[in-house]
Amino acid sequence: MAKAFFRLQKFLRRTQFLLFFLTAAYLMAGSLLLLQRSRLVIQQGSRGTPSSQALPALEEMGRAGVAEPRSLQSPRPLVAVDALQEPALEQRHSPRWLMSRNSELRQLRRRWFHRFTSEQEPLQTAGSKAMKHTAEHKGTYMGCFAHDSRERTLKGAVFYDLRKMTVAHCQEACAERAYSYAGLAHGAECYCGNSLPAAAARSEECSSECRGQRGSVCGGLGRLSVYSRNLFHIPAGRNVIYRGCFRAPENLTDTFPASLTQPNLTAEMCSEFCSKKEFPLAVIRGLECHCGFPTRRFSLREGADGLRCSGSRNASSAAGGDYCLVYQTPVQDTRCTDRKFLTTKSKVFVALSSFPGAGNTWARHLIEHATGYYTGSYYFDGALYNKGFKGEKDHWRSRRTICVKTHESGKTEIEMFDSAILLIRNPYKSLVAEFNRKYAGHLGYATDRNWKSKEWPDFVNSYASWWASHVLEWLKYGKRLLVVHYEELKQSLIPKLKEMVEFLNVTVTEDRLLCVENNRDGNFKRSGAKQKNFEPFTQEMKDLINKYILTVDEALKGRNFSGLPREYVPR
Predict the structure, then answer these.
(1) How sure is the predictor about 127, in pLDDT bands with cuts at 50, 70 and 90?
(2) What is the pTM of this model?
(3) By the number of CB atoms within 10 A of the CB, which of 198, 347, 367, 502 ranks highest?
(4) Are 156 and 332 in contact (CB under 8 A)?
(5) Start and end of every WSC domain (predicted)?
(6) What are the extents of the domains in the chain?
């Protein structure tokens, strides 16, 4: 009996080991099969549509486009062309030659778009990084103060750098705009002003470390670390920017909140006085200096002949009577800088759609400051988030933003939106802007070496077709569109911005729009040396791009939109 029991026990032990081995083998085999299938799906997804698929013709009133759904994970273009080849004459203005190419070119586009989104921030912040190590903060530390974001004492310019903020960076930013005090909060926010906050706080309450400088204190939660301007550097020649000669309003006292009368008045003296009062405009009429904002009474839209202002920009005798000289002070117009998320979810899901390099970031700056609401993004760009576009981190389908940036142009992605602002820019300018962003971030310029590399012709070959297909597909699948041309927005800012704001169903005041116009460039104007008389496009490239221009122009007119601006006309 004992022998039989021993055999049974031995058998069960062997069975237990065998079951364990079989289970482990089963799990390993399943994992390998899952990995193999995942790899296959990824490879198939990257191939896109067969190269034989072409866009349908434009005969039906601009309804050109490819019905190929696009992955929600990447902004790859849908169509391409075979390496700068000349199409047949009978197909010259037809989108039939906007064909999909091979999978390598598609993957190249996707790598280009995503690779430099992550790389651009270190490039464009190199100057800030150098400043961190070479410039210690100067000036006098005034102490820790209470900070109420709704009723700020430092009411001047506001800057964000949620990754690389330093005390020196904030001080320099405030000094460039002639503010006396620089205050830092939450480790990443910079506030400027000419009056100290009233409520002091205990020094230990300013305990947030600066995001870009270990060991330095940048305020705290509801607290400001404040520095005075007395010792740190103020750039030379920053005081006066001449805006022109304008007809003076009927009642200067009612129009301008602050004024000064002084013998031998100069533009520098008036600008300094208005800067201390935190006004963006300095207005001189005779011996009078007036400070204020652009308003309906004094909009600065219609300038006068400079001879009416006596032809002198600095003498106290300049202007007088019906005309005055106007200067821009370094102070930021803060009437339109407050922004927030929507308090309730938007019922209409609106896209701000454009080809990369068409001015989408600038349009977002204008919309945010005009409406007072953040814009969202289909993607996440850390560089933009760090500069104050807080909607970048909000999920793009949250409906808490006034509109959502996208470069997508697939049928599925387009039909997710109820309406869209379609921003179009001259393809020559768009391609150059996107290539600059690729190699130098949002604010820099690509180098000669970049332009002379093999990637530039490859880039044009791939992206030029995307510029065309992006417009064509939004015209075909977009439910409700407002077409805005970048060049017209730049030239007639207030009228075009009014159209955009009305399309978004937001009511804004005229003074707020004038504030936006006064801050039109924002912090996203490219810096550095721009090459003069630089022509990166070969004749072969121009021939290719010009055909896309004619195709898009015809499609727009077919949908009863105005055609492309004259400057788009083939070179």
Answers:
(1) very low
(2) 0.69
(3) 367
(4) yes
(5) 138-230, 239-336
(6) 140-228, 241-328, 350-524+537-558
